[in-house]
Amino acid sequence: MSGSRPSRRLKTTPFDAAEYLDDEQTIVAYLNAVLAEGDSSAVIAALGTVARARGMAKLARSTGLGRESLYKALNSDGNPSFKTVFNVATALGYRFNVSTVPQRRVRSVAVPR
Predict the structure, then answer these.
(1) Long-range contacts (CB closer than 8 Å, 24 or more residues apart) made by 9-14
(2) Is the CB of residue 93 less than 8 Å from the CB of residue 58?
(3) pTM (2 decimals)?
């Protein structure tokens, strides 16, 4: 083809949210946003992201679990027990709180007699 320039490949790097979780306020906001979505797989993956941001080896020592086990459990395909999730959150310095969900108003429907 005449007049065309050789194409250059665009160099990209994979996005890793862990690189941006560099202070407590950001981490807490991130975890709360994911929790609000209500997707358990996303919550587990988010804990894994926070664990990577903080240091998986340190977390492994704190929880008594192996690093590889943590990597495996804390990804979007992982299926850790609630005990593991709870222990990881506690080791990271977080706790879960329960609050009520605002009730949606349900319109009354007249029931025929």
Answers:
(1) none
(2) no
(3) 0.76
